[in-house]
């Protein structure tokens, strides 16, 4: 669920239709159940994390995003969702460098 889908996330957050959240939740949950692969389903986890973030369910969003990052560490979109969830929880400490080590797959600041 990376790439262009996450690039449009801020627009979606402003224009999202909350009455459609249950439909999105059901579809992503169904994807998790049907696409059981040895490497997991990072796209569905990432989508659920983004959905939980717009619902302001930050603890769940953070857990789902962490699971997605574990499966797809190079997906910067899910790392952005993880940062949004951490921010929603009041965790705003910054690393010494602007990007921390997200480019190298090192620390998972601020999580």
What gross morphology would you assign? Answer: flat
What's the main sheet like?
A: none
What is the ordering of alpha helices and beta strands? HHHHHH
Quantity of strands, as a count: 0
Tally of domains:
1
- Gap from first CA to last CA: 20 Å
Total of DSSP H or I helical runs spanning 4+ residues = 6
Low-confidence region ranges: 1-8
What is the share of helical residues? 55-70%
Based on CA atoms alone, the radius of gyration comes out at 14 Å
Name the beta content range: under 5%
Please provide a written account of the structure.
The chain is mainly alpha-helical and 111 residues long. The protein has one domain (4-88). The chain has six helices and no strands. It starts with a helix and ends in a 23-residue tail after the last helix.
Q: Can you lay out the helices and strands and say which pair or pack?
A:
Blueprint: H1 4-7, H2 9-15, H3 21-34, H4 42-54, H5 58-71, H6 76-88
Concise synopsis of the structure shown:
This protein has 111 residues and is mostly helical.
Any descriptors?
single chain; 111 residues; mainly alpha; 59% helix; flat; disordered N terminus
